[in-house]
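Q: Sequence in, structure out?
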Amino acid sequence: MSQPQTRPNDPFRRAIRKLVLGLEKREQVRSERRRHNRHPFNVKVHLCNQVGTDQYQPICEAWAVDLSMGGICCLVEQAINCNGEGDDTVFVSFEELLGRACYIPMNVRRCFTLIGNIYQVTGQFTYDGTSDPGKNTQVA
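A: Exactly. Output:
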């Protein structure tokens, strides 16, 4: 069963909502004991640091595994800082998918080795309105 439909006002929520709604149309969603349903989402994204207003520096390429309104799970070839306290913010770049710059802030919640130098990174999107990721997050 899908989550209640609300109209997000935040540009981050609108961007993720658009992606999630597209995924829901393509698959039968299983109910999970989570706040938001996860959807398989196999695309290349980039994890970035913000180095100035409207300036982002790529940390690494990442392959998304799944996506929800609450966050994303990715596979990367290098460890990402994560202390579990929620203050390890990186920005997920969906530029290749959307065809324009879009940086969504997320708190890295977990990073662990799957095998060899392949790491699984899970993060929670931050929608609190206190971060200022720049004008590139304005997604229609």
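The domain at 11-127 is CATH 2.40.10.220 (Thrombin, subunit H).
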